[in-house]
Structures
1.
Amino acid sequence: MAQDQATRGRSRCRNCGFEAPGGDDDWRRIEVPKLGRMTQCPDCESTDVITTR
């Protein structure tokens, strides 16, 4: 079931401050060996991303 922006929360890059809804297409998804799929900031390429509700 798809979630709307109100229930997904906001995600923010702790490195550069980029913000977008959690799970939004603005974020990049990368595969990291031994860690799996991670969210990556499209502006600075950091994976230090937090999501709040």
2.
Amino acid sequence: MEVFFRNFHYRIFMMANIISAIGSSLFGIVFVIYARHMPHPSLAISIASVVANLPLLFDIFMGYLADQTANHYRQQLRNRIIQGGLFIVISISMLGRAQWAGFIVVLALNMVVSLIGSYNSYGAIPIIKDIVLPNDITEAEGFESGINATISVTGGLIGAALLSGLNYHYSLFALINSASFFLAFGLLFYVRKEFSKLSSSRVTVQKAVGIVAHVRQFFRQTRSNFILLKQQATIIQFTEVFMMINLFDAGQGVLLNLSFAHQHQLLIVNYGYTVALVGMVESIGGILGSLTPGRITRHLSISKEIVLIYGAYGLMTVNILFLKSRFLLLVITVVASVFTGILNPQVQGKMINDLPEQSIGSIISAFYTVVQLTVPLGSLIFAAVANALSLKVAWSSLLAFDGVTLIIWLVQRHHQIKES
């Protein structure tokens, strides 16, 4: 957080990003509420929920597009105008009674806004690398992660309350969202001269001509990015361990929900309250970890944090299998999420400092695309084991998975240290 107050350029840039993020977050919950008023609300809500996750599949393409940008700051300005304009169209589409034609238009436009937001995130990386000192990159990434997580947690509640205050006037609410992007544009436009001399504002990019050439270049660039990522020994180890952590976390999430339904001693008040409380505690822990000052997190190496996260996950499974303590469950959840919140910006900060600037967006997007693949896999595997065999077998399998992957990680680190 200190870098936010100490660095003027970073502060202005982040304020614009925060304003944009608030607009996007507020509309997320409102869109689901709007779907309830459709002729077939269950179908509309299901479609809205599925489409909301589709932009994640295009992350790697958004990273590629960001790296094909000659002037990242100008593109940030242009994208805010486009997002604000799209919300004006959404506002017009939400006038009158909810109908399927208007709903599909709003759904498609909202997805485009999300894709542009992803584009903005990857395009912002070279700018941040220009305006933040290398030693402050990790703290800057932690601050951004913490703020985004805070907005994600509170945005839905604030959006629902604001919509109620507007007497469920969806069109007016969309206009407020539009204003947030135009406000972010105004802030960035006001200080544009401060950023015009940055190297990220004067990038030499080889442009492909024609759709076929663009598609070929995308696949060629993506392949070379994965090759380059593979050549980074330390980062490829992070990729592997993050895949395992995500797989474990997804499996643990589904098994916890099943355990709450079958082991009443774990419940706090009731099932719904327990699920909500654990989710809230996990989010708060992640926010606290992300916002922990850099002077503290510098004393924690990435390797130590990974071991601590594995230890917390292992203790979680032991607690569910044998101790069944509600209090310990919440404590472990906080501890694991705090260390995860510290770890994520440290790894991203290392990548920003180590990777070549001309393809940093593509490579980081490739990294996150790969590590996110194990999330649905973890849920599917351990849910299947729990339903086919038993919860006890599923938790025992998860504990074994935790121990085996931790040993593999330690052996890899030992070999790497020995070779260096």
3.
Amino acid sequence: MNHAIKLAAATLSAALIVPAAVALAPGWMPGTAIAMGQSDLKGGTVKLGEVDPAAIPTAGPHAAGSICNAIPIGPTVTGLTYSIERGSAGTVTVAGRSAVPFSATGTAHVTLPAGGGLRGGQCADYAIEDLVGDGTGENLVLAATPSFNLAVGSTSIEVNGLPVYRFDALSDLARNGIAELYHAGALALLFNDDPTERITRIDGSVSFPGASSATLTGLHLLEADGDPVPNTSVSISDGEFAITGFAALDPEDWYQVVLVLSAPLAGEPMRLQLQGTFAP
């Protein structure tokens, strides 16, 4: 199967818009939604922007923007978890569908309709209602984390995304990625950017910088189309792991690394370090 597609060749040109002071965003008028602009998902959690509590409108949607899947390849984004710090919110509406309430902990998980998720390059509008500051006068911070439904063996699981991992034989092979997780699993896209050498082995480690006591319980290596990579052998010990035996990852190709955890993290961070071994 030929899945030699370079991420850089198809990266969207739209820039992430995070106004430094949303209250002064161009076009803002009292009583209208604060414009959050466009935010690009690139694997892990993306900051949508900050809101000055003194600028929250008195009626209508309080904040509105668009969110785009800026990874043109890989699985479709099937869910979005919106989160808020230094305040609270009532509901979030995505693509004009039913409003989803925020929990007492400041999160709202939106399930995108079957067949209607965000494929690479696609965007969806969102609107957030009933923003309230925490009384400190500090800006509210809004963020979103994508999730994916993946088939692992005979089971379908929902996992959160991690930043993309890109390797080549001449650079430092170790790469760290950290993201907020709301589900009991994570997805890392691993690219071989080396022009001549193949990746023959993958080593890594998982840690939890926050308060989570979750552990790594399973790991799967998938083709670009989601099929398991044949002949893969996985060993896991105290958060460290090795993936061997698979067909070497050719230059400009990519695999999906799926990590299964013992429990959801409820927004706590997970750190994943990966390292590739190269051979001609």
4.
Amino acid sequence: MSNSNGWGLTARLITKHFGALGDRVSEAIANFDPETATEADRDRLADTLRATAQKLAAARSSFEKEHADVVKLQELIANDEKAAETLGERLASGRISEATINLFCDELESNKARLPLEIQEQADAEEYMNELQKIVDALSQQLADFDAAAKKALQALAQANAQRDLQQVRSERQEQLNGLKGLQGNSSALNALTRRAQAVSNEAAGMKIVADIGQRPHDQAAELDAIRKSVSNPGAAGGESALARLQRLSGKTATA
């Protein structure tokens, strides 16, 4: 923390009462940064908080005892002062000895002389307790800040992971779409198949042309043969009757 000078008295008080704990608390408060602290840093701070809280509990008990001693001594002095008003009458009447009066006065004077010291001890205990309370509050706030920063960091990490996953899904979908587009018009495999089909078709057409050329002499010869047959055998042209055809085939001629 920036106000490290403000903890000077606290560090001295803690060092006086509890030794090395003062340096540990001062260092923990001064160097802890919730934004960059690790979980180990938090654990150390939490341990310091627990130790300081225990000292605070002891300081409260000490203050309560010092306060009770002051109150008790103040009541004793007040009662003795009231009693002193009547002791003179008892001394004059002989109901109490002078030695007893002197002993009473010695105790009253001693208690009055001791009261400022008791009050100062009470004030020191109260100051120490209050300073420890400030330290406990500061450590508690540091822990709260760390937990808030950690929660914020975890939320940011979760959001970043979600965004990364979303972009990954979008990238995969884009790759799938690109693949489908390739199948529609840019597929090398389909283009190769198309070219192969055209080549086979062209090859078949060429073979048909060659076959037609080779078949043409046969067709012409058959046509000539049919012409010769029709000239040498006119009846075979299809104009004779069934009876004439039978007579022709049997070698008989028709009678008039």
